[in-house]
Structures are given as C-alpha cells and as structure tokens.
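Hello forum,

I keep getting stuck at the same step: I have a sequence, I want structure tokens, and every attempt I make locally crashes halfway through. Rather than fight my setup again tonight, could one of you with a working pipeline run this one for me? It's a single chain of 224 residues.
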Amino acid sequence: MKKVLLLILGFYGAFAHAQTPEEFFSLGKKSLETRKWGEAVAAFSKAIEGKEDFAQAFVFRGTAEYYRGNIDGACINWFKAKDLGLQEVNQIIKAYVPKTFDMMRRAEDYAEEGKARFEGGDYEGAIESYTNAIYANPKFAWAYNKRAYARTNLEKYKEAVEDYDKAIAIDGGNDARLFTFRGMAKCKSGDKTGGCNDILTGIAKGHEKAKTLLDNPAYNCNKN
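Reply #2:
Ran it on my machine without issues. Output:
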C-alpha cells in the first residue's frame, strides 16, 4: 500500500510541476508506458489544453483511451489528429478503428447516451459518454457540467471541481447553478471555505434554490 501511495504522490507531484504542453505530453507518455491509462489521458488532455493543435497528443490520448476500453473516444482523437494533418495516424485508423464506428455521430448524441447511462446508475459509463461528447465538442459546457455530476456521485470531487471550472470558463460565469454545484463539490472535497463562497456566488447570481444549502448540515455555510 505504501509503495502504491508513493507512486500516486509521485505522479501528482510531476503533474503539478509540469508547465508546458510538451512537459505534459512527456508525462503522459511515461504514464502510457507504465499502463496507467487514466493518468495518461489526464496528462495528454493538459497538453491539448495548452496547445489545441497538438496532433501527437491527440494520437497518444486516443491510444490511452483505446487501452482503457473507450473505443469511440480513441477514434475521435485519432481522427482529430488526422484533421490536424498528421498523416501517420492513418495506419492506426486502418488497423484499429472498427467498421461500426460512426464518424457522423455528434456531441449531442454522446451527451444523450451519457444521460441514459447516468439515469440507469452507470456513472462510469456516463463519464465515458460525456467525455466523448467533450472530445467531439471541446466547448460543450453542458457536458462538462454533467460529467462533473457523475463524478460527484462516485465521490471524485477533485475531478468534479475541475469539470465545473471548465464549464464556468466556457459559459463565461453566466449560469449561476454552476457556481452552486461547484461549491457543493468543493465542500464535499473538504474545501468548505471555497465551497461556501461558490454557493454564495450562486445565490448572488440568482440561483434561489441554493439558499436551501445555507443551513444544510452537509454545508452549514451560515456558520462558515
């Protein structure tokens, strides 16, 4: 257990020190080599956030998704790399893209799939579907919001907060509910001060239902 913990801390330590897209890309490759698929996806995603035309990062993120079983996510990433002009990825597409993969499928379709999975209690499946919706449309604030909700149900609060951060940034801070939801996730992650500040921001921006959280024992923002 101690060895596993040190490995996890080592990854997050390296993740925290990575600054450039190239550094995140290098970190992702190391995670891929050690078969840490989720960590690899996270690192390649950071690389792409910093460099939206980083074709190689799309190829490697697709590969990481393929190995963790998200075949559609892999295909979307590989085709994105092809669109960016990386012709070498054609060999991967030819060898690994299933004939059943539908390139015409839209982000909204994956989002609807995510909703159905969520309602059926398949939160991991919902996260996969919403992830594919985001791959298809990186500016899909609603998909980030819903993926955050699914992650909250799995008690992955840190990841949920990161998704709400993205949703708020894309939305421009106009949807008051996003602040409330992020606040709830922050409180559950242990950041009561930050969480209550977000809940109060949600109320100030017009989310009336958030007022019911102020005296809720899970948050107790009136006592913060």
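Confidence is low (pLDDT under 50) at residues 1-12. If your local run keeps crashing, start a new thread with the error log.
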